[in-house]
Amino acid sequence: MSLTQAAPLLTPEEIAIRAGGQQQVPFLVLPQRASVFAEREIRLRQLAAGHPMRDFLIFMAEVVHAQHRALQDCPAVEVPDDAALESAARLGMPAVPATDWPRDPAWRAVFRSLLDSLVPRLAGSPALATVQALREVDDEWLDAQADLLLHNLMLGLELGPAPLIGAALQVYWTHLVLSTQAAGEKSRLAPFGRTDDATACPCCGSHPTASVSRVNATAGNYRYLHCSLCSTQWHMVRIKCSHCEGTKGIQYQSLEPVGAATAEGNRAVKHPVEAETCDECGHYLKIVHMERDAQVEPVADDLASVTLDLLVSEAGFQRHGVNLMLLFGEPDIPDDGGGG
Ligand SMILES: [Zn+2]
Ligand SMILES: [Zn+2]
C-alpha cells in the first residue's frame, strides 16, 4: 500500500465565499440519542468484514451495542443551571467541560451496565476474562482512571480497561449534553454555541476524533470536527489545521483508492478516509468523506484505518485525533508491544 497525495482545490476563503457566508451551515450538529451509537455499530460490523483487524472491530461493535442500550436507559442527571450556562457563554467556555464538570455517580452505573451487557455476548472471546475482572473494581479506582483519560494523561492509565471506561464516559457525556440541551430549550436558552477555542468541542472541550465531510444538499460539502467524548460535531472551514488553525501547508494523504485493484475503470472511487496533514505544526487529523461513502462514521472509520496512521506517522506527522477506544501510547513505547 502506498500514499497518494492530492493538492487542495479551494482555499478556505473561496469555500466561505461559495457558502455565501456561514449562515446556512448549522454550527453544531448534536448527537441523536436513537442513532449515534447504533450507526457506529453498523459501520463497525460493515468494516470488520474481511478486515485484518476483524476480531478487534467486532469486539468494538459489541461495546458500541452496549453503549446504545445504556444511552436509551440513562437516568436523569444534574445539568448546569441557567446562571452556569450564562457564565460559560460569557467566558467563551464549554458548558459541560470534560476536565472540570463534577461527574454524576451515574457514570459508574453506566460503566457497570456496559459490563453486564457485554458478558453474555462475549462467550468464548479472549476479552471475556478482562471484562469479568472489571466487575470487581472499586469506585475510587474508576474515577482516578476516568480523570486520567479525560485529561489525556497516559502515565498511570491502564490501557486494557481504558476503552471500556472511555465507552462509559462517552455514554454519560452524550446523555449530559442532550439533557443540557433539552433543559436549555425549556428555559429558552441555547446552552451550546461558539467558544473561544475553535479546535475543542464547544459542548465539552474535548479533542476531535476526526473530521467528517458532510453532504449539504443545497450548498455542497462542509467539514465538521467530531468530538471524541460527546459525539457533537462542530463546523470548521475546510483546509485548515484543526490543531494550530494554520491554513498553509495543508496536504491530504490517503491509502490507495477503493477499487484500484479491480481494473474495472473504478479508479475514480477515492478512499473515504484521508489524513489532513499540517506542515506548520506537524500534526494530522483524519477526515472521513460522506460524499464518497454515505455510511462513514468518524469513530468507526478511524479504528479501521490504523494503517493510514502508521504511514502518516512514518512520514513524521503526529496524531492530533483522540479515539477513546484505541489509545495511541507515548511515541517511545517499543514496537513489539503486541496489540490485544
Ligand atoms: Zn464534546
Ligand atoms: Zn497545524
Query: CATH homologous superfamily of the largest domain, by name?
Result: FdhE-like domain
- What fold name stands as the CATH topology of the largest domain? FdhE-like fold
The helix fraction, in percent, is 25-40%
What string, H for helix and E for strand, traces the elements in order?
A: EHEHHHHHHHEEEEEEHHE
Instruction: Kindly state the number of beta strands.
Output: 9
Overall tally of structural domains: 2
Characterize the biggest β-sheet. 9 strands, mixed
**Poorly predicted regions:** 17-22, 331-340
* CATH class category of the largest domain: Alpha Beta
CATH second-level architecture of the largest domain: Alpha-Beta Complex
Shape: globular
Task: Tell me the radius of gyration.
Answer: 20 Å
Give average pLDDT, whole number.
88
SS class: alpha+beta
What is the CA-CA span between the terminal residues?
24 Å
**How much strand content do the residues show?**
5-15%
Counting H and I runs of at least 4 residues, what is the number of helices? 10
The bound ligands are: zinc ion
Give a structural overview:
With 340 residues, the chain is α+β, with helices and mostly antiparallel strands. It folds into two domains: 4-16 and 207-328, FdhE-like domain (FdhE-like fold, Alpha-Beta Complex), CATH 3.90.1670; 32-186, FdhE-like fold (Alpha-Beta Complex), CATH 3.90.1670. It contains ten helices and nine strands. It starts with a strand and ends in a 21-residue tail after the last strand. The structure holds zinc ion (ZN) (2 copies). Residues 241, 243-244, 246, 278, 280-281, 283 line the site of one zinc ion. The site of one zinc ion has 8 residues, from loops.
